[in-house]
Amino acid sequence: MSDTSTQTITASFKTREAADLAVEHLVQKLGIERTDVFVQSIGYENASGVKPSGGDAPTATEEGRTDAQLSSEIEVSVDIDVDNADRVDAELKTLGAADVVRS
């Protein structure tokens, strides 16, 4: 008999771009309901991550940007049934997640 209890898996990402990619993989590749996936800044301040990437990276004509708040990592958490927890854990790690924690 399979275990039908739910587990929360939480992972941190250094950029918003990486966190968004993780959400996309969880929903589209693993078939997890989007309502079971949560994204937030790890710190108290709003953040786009801790290093520039994607839309917050300077272009060739810019010396730097001050509009992107690079203050904390982005946390992605997912509520998943225990039977699928190993798949989610492995996918998050493959996508570069740090500090993957199960609770």
Description:
The protein has 103 residues and is α+β, with helices and mostly antiparallel strands. 23% of the residues lie in helices and 25% in strands. A 4-stranded antiparallel sheet has the order 2-3-1-4, with helices on one face.
Number of domains: 1
| CATH architecture field | 2-Layer Sandwich
CATH topology: Alpha-Beta Plaits
**Count the strands?**
4
From the alpha carbons, calculate the radius of gyration and give it in angstroms: 15 Å
End-to-end gap: 22 Å
- Low-confidence runs (pLDDT<50, min 5 residues)? none
What share of the residues lie within helices? 10-25%
The class by helix and strand makeup works out as alpha+beta
Distinct helical segment count: 2
Taken in chain order, the helices and strands follow as: EHEEHE
Biggest sheet record: 4 strands, antiparallel
Percentage of residues in strands: 25-35%
Major beta sheet, strand line-up: 2-3-1-4
Q: What does the average pLDDT come to?
A: 83
Overall 3D geometry?
elongated
Q: CATH first level: which class?
A: Alpha Beta
Keywords:
103 residues; alpha+beta; elongated
Summarize the structure.
The chain is built from 2 helices and 4 strands, in the order βαββαβ. With 103 residues, the protein is of the alpha+beta class.
Strand and helix layout:
Layout: E1 6-13, H1 16-29, E2 37-41, E3 74-81, H2 85-94, E4 98-102
Antiparallel strand pairs: 1-3, 1-4, 2-3
